Amino acid sequence: MNSTQLVIALTKGRILDEVLPLFEQANIVPAENINESRKLIFDTNLENVKLMVIRGSDVPTYVQFGSADMGVVGKDLLLEYGDEGFYEPLDLKIAECRLMTAEPVGSTPVQGRLKVATKFTNIAKKYFAEQGKQIELIKLNGALELAPSMGLADSIVDIVDTGKTLVANGLEPRELIAHISSRVIVNKASMKIKNALIREILGRLREAVEKMVESR
Ligand code: AMP
User: Fold this and answer.
1) What contacts 24+ positions apart, CB below 8 Å, involve 199-202?
2) Same domain, 150 and 171
3) What pLDDT is recorded for position 60?
4) N or C: which end of the chain has fewer CB within 10 A?
């Protein structure tokens, strides 16, 4: 990789819709419409900065191994897959949500071992161990909200934003595990080798976050 080139990995989907306006405020603008393209890597208005758009769970991997210098990723994924091997210098305060346990509305505490369905198995394991609760973990990859009504689990651990998904599935939020937002992560070697450029980008993003927070 050219040492004057900087690659920033962004997360596809919902987070991208909040990241792009913030990047625009920081005057980092893709050269074409990311949502209308099938490309995965984009030039920007800055000659030496490129944006990659990949799955959130792949962002830490690209950044850790230096194929991307920087990345934007949800704290949920950092908590689940580990946040070592790179720096985490900035909270973008976007895509804010909560990681929570949820159970059927009005359900009473389960006697004995709780069955918990989630895709966040590491987070759930750690959380319930800290609570001193014995659980049986059931790994699912999506549609967690179905698990309790189908008799697969007593409780789920999932991301809650407005809470509408829970309500629509007869569930209610119970315990807060963590507040989540999108974070900027930086490859450790890049931070040294491309320090001036990375500090410039971090400075612009920090200012954009401050402006956004002020206008809320
Ligand atoms: P809600 O119905 O608004 O509570 O949204 C909950 C669903 O949207 C969850 O099942 C999540 O999968 C997804 N979701 C909401 N916010 C985020 C976020 N910031 N990051 C990832 N997924 C999210």
Assistant:
1) 201/6, 201/8, 201/26, 201/28, 201/49, 201/70, 202/89, 202/90
2) yes
3) 97
4) C
